[in-house]
Design a protein that fits this description.
This protein has about 350 residues and is of the alpha/beta class. Helices cover about 60% and strands about 10% of the residues. It folds into three domains: about 130 residues, Rossmann fold, CATH 3.40.50.300; about 60 residues, Helicase, Ruva Protein, domain 3, CATH 1.10.8; about 130 residues, Zinc Finger, Delta Prime, domain 3 (Up-down Bundle). Keywords: DNA replication, DNA-directed DNA polymerase, Nucleotidyltransferase, Transferase.
Length: about 350
């Protein structure tokens, strides 16, 4: 087994292993997958004079021509040296292509594969974990220690000081996606440029909840009947690399929470009590949207919306290329229903 343990990931990625030229990066944190892939690809191509640098392949194209991956990896670099290949897995099966590559791995190549959340013991993950020529690295949401390290390193690189209270407040707002967290920290550093220290006031003024704010905005606008706001938030999220099925999954969870609250209301409760009793607690910024949704939707209509969203979620997972279009259409339909009342 060549599955890398979480505690060994940073050390493993800090050096190239010629005996294991294939590196599979996968997991639910797509931002961390992408960040680690970029860093490893940069390390692999460092010092190269090849003007074309890294060869980038699409998994859906490779699935129809499995031999192409072997050919690209085995091709000599234009100016000699190491061949560097980046493969982003999509919705189609790339196992035959990777299997052929692992059967006869090239001596002068590094192949980095980016994938989504893969089940243990199946498909691409099982293949790479079982091969002596590959590394399989899972990318899960950052722990508090990981986030603290990220905050400290970025503030130190910027030459800025962060108050203790501000650091704690910032850490509470980060997580879920590495690239989103990094973006929020960079935004804070830019906002506080020229200030003697970064304070809690700076954090509250500029930092959103990077792990869930975008998803909350999409879900809240959907069920509050604000299709234009939903479409804007959806475009921003997908533009930053968030997968359509993740968005739909979050909106489904919101629908389930609303359904439970509506059940309690229709059983004799009231909206205020449902809002106050929600667990986890609803952030004060979201309460107006959730209240509007609770007053506008019935249990029966929420059930129908949830079925439609579930169907869209399944379709988006089956066809990743069309996922954004499938998701946006389903969300616009639900938002339109909410708007019409």
């Amino acid at each position: 087994m060549v599955a890398v343990r979480p505690g060994d990931v940073e050390a493993t990625l800090s050096r190239l292993d010629p005996l294991r030229p294939v590196v599979l990066l996968f997991g639910p944190d797509s931002g961390l997958v992408r960040e680690r892939a970029r860093a490893y690809l940069a390390r692999a191509s460092a010092g190269s004079d090849d003007p074309f640098g890294i060869v980038r392949l699409d998994g859906d194209e490779i699935s129809g021509d499995p031999g192409r991956l072997v050919d690209e990896a085995g091709t000599m670099a234009l100016f000699g040296g190491r061949r560097v290949v980046s493969l982003r897995a999509g919705s189609k099966n790339v196992v035959p292509a990777v299997e052929a590559l692992l059967a006869a791995p090239p001596e002068q190549a590094i192949i980095v594969i980016e994938a989504g959340d893969l089940k243990r013991g199946m498909g691409l993950r099982a293949l790479c974990e079982a091969s002596p020529h590959a590394l399989a690295i899972a990318c899960y949401a950052d722990s508090e220690r990981d986030l603290a390290r990220l905050v400290d390193s970025m503030t130190a690189e910027a030459g800025m000081a962060l108050d203790r209270d501000a650091r704690g407040e910032l850490l509470a707002l980060l997580g879920g996606d590495r690239m989103a967290s990094r973006g929020e920290i960079a935004k804070l550093l830019l906002y506080a440029t020229g200030e003697p220290r970064i304070t809690s006031a700076h954090v509250r003024a500029i930092v959103g909840d990077a792990s869930s704010l975008a998803l909350d905005e999409i879900a809240d606008a959907t069920f509050a009947g604000q299709p234009a706001d939903m479409a804007s938030a959806f475009a921003k999220a997908t533009g930053e690399g968030m997968r359509a099925d993740i968005v739909l999954g979050a909106v489904c969870r919101t629908a389930q929470a609303l359904h439970q609250m509506r059940l309690s209301i229709e059983a004799g409760g009231n909206v205020e009590r449902a809002l106050d009793g929600a667990r986890p607690a609803i952030h004060f910024r979201r309460k107006p949207f959730v209240e509007k949704a609770l007053r506008g939707w019935s249990v029966a209509r929420l059930e129908a919306a949830l079925f439609a969203l579930d169907d869209a979620l399944l379709a988006a997972r089956r066809n990743a290329a069309l996922g954004p279009a499938i998701a946006e259409r389903a969300l616009l339909q639900v938002a339109g229903q909410a708007k019409r009342g």
